[in-house]
Amino acid sequence: KVRGGVAKTLSVVVHVCTLGKKAFISEPKTDVGTGNTPLATLTGSNPSTGRFAVSVFGRGEGKERVSVSYFGGKHKREQMEQADDMLKNVYRYAMQNDPMAQTLRLPNEMHDADRANAVFIQVVIPVGGEVDIVYNSFQANSVDETMENGAEQLLAPAQELAGTKLSNVVEARLAAFDAKFEKTFKLSDKACTASTSKSVACKNEKFTAAATEVGKVALSQIMGGITYLDGTWFKADAPFYNTSTEQAAVVSFSATPCRDGFARGFLWDEGFHQLLVSRWDPEISRDILLHWFALMQKDGWIPREQFIGGETRRRIEKRWWVQNPTHANPPTLLLALEVLLDSGQAPASFLTCLAPKVKVWLEWFKRTQRAPALHSFKWSGRQRTEGIWHTLSSGLDDYPRANWTSDVADRHVDLYSWIVMMHRVLMKMHQQLAAQHSASSSSSSSSSSAAQSSLSSTIGTLKNHVEAIHWNNATQSFADRGYMEYGGGRSKTQRVDFVQHHGYVSLFPFLLDVLPETFGADKMAAIIDVVKSEKYLMSKAGLRSLSPTAPGGGRDVVYGSQEDYWRGKVWININYLALAALHRHTHTHAHTARAAADTYHTLRANLIDTITASYAKKGFLFEQYDDKTREGLKHKPFAGWTALVLLIMAEAY
Question: Which residues are known catalytic residues?
Answer without folding.
Answer: 397, 623
